[in-house]
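Here is the promised in-class demo. Please do not try to memorize the tokens; focus on the logic of going from shape to residues.
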């Protein structure tokens, strides 16, 4: 990347801190680096959960929440005319964030639940919302007491038949993950009660 590219640090307090790559000093691979919360002046106890790198604010930020909703926000929403370092209300606080990603182009996601189900979704199916704090739209119809638990890009999910998990429309309920797919993707084994 370049020194004038922007780093956006999204935190668990629903804020985003912005800086340039060049704001961090060059170092060797063996150097520990700088502590990001201190360097950017984050609030006490606030932790970064995702970092986006952009040169032109193209593409989208995608946020997936435990309640089965997904928000797709244009990166342009985070561009500012002034050199502001901190933006409040960077994403919705209605449900716990499970996964966030900066998508320069549309992609397919393997979305799994705590109930052992998975749904294959193309990000183009998710409508864009201009408001950063949008709660998003339902992409997953969750069963009682289940939540979104793990999200992977399609190319990172190992499966002999990944199309088995695709749904023609959203929201979807997904399919139970095959035992061979659980093993291939290091899903935890279900514990027997007896």
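The designed amino acids, position by position:
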């Amino acid at each position: 990347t370049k020194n004038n590219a922007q780093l956006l640090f999204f935190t668990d307090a629903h804020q985003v801190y912005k800086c340039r790559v060049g704001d961090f000093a060059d170092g060797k691979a063996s150097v520990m680096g700088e502590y990001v919360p201190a360097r950017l002046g984050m609030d006490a106890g606030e932790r970064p959960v995702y970092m986006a790198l952009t040169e032109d604010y193209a593409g989208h930020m995608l946020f997936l929440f435990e309640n089965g909703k997904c928000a797709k926000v244009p990166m342009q929403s985070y561009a500012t005319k002034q050199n502001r370092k901190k933006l409040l209300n960077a994403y919705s606080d209605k449900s716990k964030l499970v996964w966030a990603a900066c998508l320069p182009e549309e992609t397919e996601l393997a979305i799994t639940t705590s109930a052992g189900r998975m749904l294959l979704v193309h990000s183009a199916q998710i409508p864009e919302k201009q408001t950063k704090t949008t709660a998003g739209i339902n992409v997953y119809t969750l069963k009682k007491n289940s939540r979104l638990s793990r999200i992977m890009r399609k190319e990172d999910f190992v499966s002999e038949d990944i199309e088995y998990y695709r749904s023609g429309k959203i929201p979807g309920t997904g399919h139970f993950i095959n035992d061979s797919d659980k093993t291939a993707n290091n899903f935890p084994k279900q514990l027997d009660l007896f």
